[in-house]
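Saturday, quiet lab. Running sequence design on the structure tokens for the scaffold JK sent over.
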């Protein structure tokens, strides 16, 4: 079978660019290489940024109504072709079709939020702040902005960024993950079909070379990044050093606290869904269950029972619930964490390492795995595994559960399961995490709120999409205006207003 070549999209044209380097793209369910993605050189980055800069001259001054109309047309195309997009995601990422459809839906909701841009960009106006003096604020686009995104949500995470950026009047350069790049081409074609002018949305594929060139390019005004913590830190430090506005979302280790009074059936359903959904390759996946007092004795058998019913299979099978991991290397790394957990003395309750899928022996599969008696000094607790591995940490007080989470270096998402309103209230107030669920395992806000963690899960002062998205992609300008009136004439070297001098 011939391999597809995945190209950049610059100024409305698919192009291989000038780079000689290419990276392999796999179907993780079969383990076979299905494509090759072209990697951008600095010269390609320069071409894309130059095209975006040129397009900004017109797009940045286009009417709100025009931008909204294009966003509505794009929304219709994405909604109509949901299934095509989802299939593309499942083929290169490996997640189930149902999960891919969910990802498209969540992205679509951000596009819908951006369709409302005319309302979102309304400024503020204060009339007569002093006699004859009005003050108003407006929000202007930044110029060329770039998005650098991870493999685990190849369509949704870019959609957290570019619909809002573009609706605000910016032009955009996307550098998606090189591991599942094809869906970005599909999106670029749909944007063009929706009437977006050339150069407003560009896609560059590649690795560190492309990312660093974007971070250093003088015509890139802002960078949105989502990915692992070490790269988020690098992007934040290099981007801000070069004078750019940066929001960089990093990795996670999400804890779910189970109090003894919790609804254990609900808690077990939630732990399995949030721990093993998308094979644990979600930044909001639960990876640690913190049980208080004897809660583990009730919870673990219920989780175990549910795990026997899970179907790990390729996304082409209709009843698949968990797909493969993204690469063989990552699959082997997850397996090595399971080995380390055993060696470090955790109790392996369910072992997914030996799973084989008939007909897909070369696929990057690993089965759901459950550990009990994990302690915070073990590598399975300390590191982000990003696979279907759940660790149970037992503690003997609620205070200790909260203390454990607050000590963790990440603070993306967390949840508490309890029927006690006071305990939930305490959790909400005291927990040092950006997104908090109360009897909700994956507390991801819809598009009209913003998404973002604390600590090493987010570098920068803006969360992503929602109102923070609008603020990130615009800068505020304040205008103070007065129309000449004879009473204000005359030299005044002071700092007091007319009213403060007791004149009216
Ligand atoms: P990654 O950090 O390896 O890659 C992210 C992006 O950075 C990719 O586009 C990649 O090409 C680029 N990149 C990789 N190495 C680089 C380097 N040395 N210099 C410059 N750029 C580089 O992340 P990933 O493996 O694709 O995604 C998984 C990670 O993303 C996990 O840690 C997960 O928690 C995190 N994630 C976080 C969120 C969030 O909202 N906080 C959401 C999704 C994923």
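Result came back. Writing it out in full:
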């Amino acid at each position: 079978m011939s391999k597809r070549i995945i190209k950049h999209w610059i100024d409305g044209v698919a192009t291989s660019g000038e780079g000689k380097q290419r990276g392999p793209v796999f179907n993780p369910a079969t383990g076979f290489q299905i494509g090759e993605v072209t990697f951008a050189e600095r010269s390609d980055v320069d071409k894309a940024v130059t095209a975006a800069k040129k397009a900004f001259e017109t797009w940045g001054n286009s009417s709100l109504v025009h931008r909204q109309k294009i966003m509505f047309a794009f929304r219709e195309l994405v909604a109509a072709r949901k299934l095509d997009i989802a299939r593309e995601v499942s083929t290169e990422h490996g997640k189930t079709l149902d999960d891919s459809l969910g990802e498209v839906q969540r992205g679509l909701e951000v596009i819908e939020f951006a369709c409302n841009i005319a309302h979102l960009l309304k400024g503020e106006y204060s009339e007569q702040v002093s006699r004859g003096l009005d003050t108003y604020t407006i929000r202007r686009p930044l110029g060329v902005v770039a998005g650098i995104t991870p493999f685990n949500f190849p369509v949704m995470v870019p959609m957290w960024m570019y619909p809002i950026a573009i609706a605000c009047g910016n032009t955009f350069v996307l550098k998606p993950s090189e591991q599942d790049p094809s869906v970005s081409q599909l999106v670029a074609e749909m944007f063009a079909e929706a009437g977006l002018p050339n150069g407003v949305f560009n896609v560059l594929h590649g690795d560190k070379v492309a990312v660093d060139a974007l971070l250093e390019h003088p015509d890139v005004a802002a960078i949105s990044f989502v990915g692992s913590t070490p790269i988020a830190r690098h992007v934040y430090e290099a981007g801000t050093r070069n004078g750019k506005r940066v929001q960089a979302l990093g990795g996670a280790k999400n804890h779910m606290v189970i109090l003894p009074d919790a609804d254990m059936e609900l808690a077990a359903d939630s732990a399995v869904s949030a721990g093993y959904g998308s094979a644990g390759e979600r930044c909001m996946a639960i990876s640690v269950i913190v049980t208080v007092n004897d809660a583990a004795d009730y919870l673990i058998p219920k989780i175990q029972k549910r795990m026997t019913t899970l179907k790990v299979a390729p996304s082409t099978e209709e009843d698949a619930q968990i797909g493969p991991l993204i690469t063989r290397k990552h699959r082997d790394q997850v397996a090595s964490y399971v080995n380390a957990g055993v060696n470090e003395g955790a109790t392996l309750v369910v072992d997914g390492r030996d799973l084989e899928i008939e007909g897909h022996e070369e696929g990057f599969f690993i089965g759901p795995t459950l550990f009990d008696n994990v302690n915070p000094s073990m590598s399975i607790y300390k590191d982000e595994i990003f696979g279907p591995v759940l660790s149970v940490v037992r503690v003997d007080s609620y205070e200790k559960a909260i203390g454990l989470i607050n000590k963790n270096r990440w603070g993306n998402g967390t949840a508490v399961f309890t029927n006690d309103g006071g305990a939930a209230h305490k959790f909400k107030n005291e927990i040092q995490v950006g997104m908090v669920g109360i009897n909700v395992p994956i507390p991801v806000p819809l598009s009209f709120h913003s998404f973002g963690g604390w600590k090493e899960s987010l570098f920068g002062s803006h969360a992503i999409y929602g109102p923070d998205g609008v603020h990130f992609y615009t800068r505020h300008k304040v205008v103070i205006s007065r129309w000449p009136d004879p009473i204000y004439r005359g030299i005044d070297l002071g700092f007091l207003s007319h009213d403060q001098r007791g004149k009216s």
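Notes for JK: The chain has 16 helices and 23 strands. The longest helix spans residues 42-59. Ask whether to fix the surface positions before the next round.
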